[in-house]
Design a protein that fits this description.
The chain contains 7 helices and 5 strands, in the order E-H-H-E-H-H-E-H-E-H-E-H. The protein has helices at about 5-15, 20-30, 40-50, 60-70, 90-100, 110-115, 125-135, and strands at about 1-5, 35, 75, 105, 125.
């Protein structure tokens, strides 16, 4: 199973151990392959190293998280561009899912969830729905 995980879900995973995003990401790491592109990694790096998260986790721990994420996720080269959304950050995830042939994109972003009908090979699910789908089958 190949999975793309949006930045906000990864942040939830990194910062809140008992959160639904954490449980969804842990399940995906144990049972699948997490995909990243240069742009998706950069977005995660910029967000998680932001000072606004200093109160939750020290800078060194967040850098270790990024290093581990890079080591255990799979890089995907983006060769086909997708432009479904005006917001470039959302297109980054869609391009990653498409180019990496991901079965799932995990996100809580309503704009991305609404695109489920347009993508033929990738199912877009919230972290909660991803867990329900996989833990009930």
């Amino acid at each position: 199973m190949k999975v793309v995980i949006d930045t906000n879900t990864m942040i939830g995973h990194a910062l809140w151990e008992d959160s639904i995003p954490n449980k969804a990401v842990e399940y995906a790491f144990r049972n699948g392959i997490i995909l990243r592109s240069r742009n998706s990694y950069y977005a995660l790096e910029q967000m998680i190293l932001s000072q606004r998260f200093d109160k939750y986790l020290n800078h060194e721990s967040r850098e270790k998280f990024l290093k581990l994420f890079k080591e255990i996720s799979r890089h995907v080269e983006i060769t086909e561009r997708i432009h479904f959304m005006e917001d470039a950050s959302k297109n980054i995830l869609l391009e990653l899912a498409h180019n990496g042939k991901a079965e799932y994109l995990i996100t809580s972003q309503k704009e991305l969830l609404a695109l489920n009908e347009k993508l033929t090979t990738t199912q877009i699910l919230t972290p909660s729905d991803f867990l329900i789908y996989h833990c009930s089958s």
